[in-house]
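Hi everyone,

Forwarding the result from last night's run.
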Amino acid sequence: MAMAAVGVAGVLLAVHAAPPGSAPAARTTAGDLRAAGTDPVATEAGTAPCPVGSPAAAAVTQLAAATARCLGSSQSVDVGRAIGGQPTLLNVWASWCAPCREEMPVLDAYAALPGAVRVVGVDVRDRPGSAAALMRDLQIGYPSFTDADTVAAALAAPPVLPLSYLVTTDGSVRRLQDVLVFHDVGQVTRSVAAALDAA
């Protein structure tokens, strides 16, 4: 019980007491970068392309009108349409969040397993350049949306990070709450399987 309380405190501190010099800052949008003469495609290069969805796939209703852009792209997209049509683990994170940094390589290892559901990051309250740099440093192979605060709002995400959600093929969304921070691939596998069974 004491260890669980320590874990919860650590996750809450990730949001409210980020390390000095890495606290969340005002968002820098693609428009801001272009106005400053910086192309996000160049500054965020090296990140995986995000899903674009299929016209035949059912959009994720809960994410209707939630827009974001993919790290490495200057175009905003409708995230509900982009991820519709196949099971997806959405992981809400930020580069300044220490537990997020610990969890991302675990999610990346899970994403590489045969039969794993698609993993897509949702970077919030962050500088996109810092997010892209972290993904490159950790060699994360799954894609991530950024400028994604509207996505977090549509998910009714509490003010803690990281957070994970499973989006099913029919577009329903379920928060994965059995593990606060994934520390091994088995935890991710079991959590996703339980959510799929409950869907």
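Residues 1-23, 25-38 have pLDDT under 50 and may be disordered.

Cheers,
N.
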